[in-house]
Amino acid sequence: MIQVEGELPVALKVLDGQTEIKSKKVVMRQMTAIEYMQSQADTEAGQYIGIADLAAMTKLVDADGKEHTISYDMLGNSSRSNLDYLNEKVIELKAKEAAAE
């Protein structure tokens, strides 16, 4: 599976049970066609497709290497710098995928 890793400009927080995880480390993977269509189907009225797609492709990685889902609201309510950074990562991911073919 093709992926890229990086660090967000601004940390995101996620709850893992009762524990709050704060991290900047992310991994982004290219979605399959089915995952992409499911992501689109799960988008709610008033949500932006671009944010939903980035959230679906990206996981937050904690200090132990465990991956956590990034929700639409987590990403949408974070810094715009995070959105810009992840959009750059999509370009990197697409280039990596094209080079692998």
Written description of the protein model:
This protein is an alpha+beta fold. It has one domain (3-100). It is 45% helix and 32% strand. The protein contains four helices and four strands, in the order E-E-H-H-E-E-H-H. The protein has helices spanning 33-42, 49-57, 72-76, 80-100, and strands at 3-16, 19-29, 58-61, 67-69. A four-stranded antiparallel sheet has the order 1-2-3-4. Helix 1 packs across helix 2. The longest helix has 21 residues, at 80-100. The protein is globular and about 40 Å long. The two termini are 12 Å apart.
The secondary-structure element order is EEHHEEHH
Strand order of the largest sheet: 1-2-3-4
| Beta-strand percent range | 25-35%
What gyration radius follows from the Cα positions, in whole Å?
Answer: 13 Å
Major sheet description? 4 strands, antiparallel
Helix content: 40-55%
Low-confidence sequence ranges = none
E-strand count: 4
Q: Termini separation (Å)?
A: 12 Å
Number of H- or I-type helical stretches: 4
Mean pLDDT: 93
Form type: globular
What is the count of distinct domains? Answer: 1
Structural class: alpha+beta
Topology:
Layout: E1 3-16, E2 19-29, H1 33-42, H2 49-57, E3 58-61, E4 67-69, H3 72-76, H4 80-100
Antiparallel strand pairs: 1-2, 2-3, 3-4
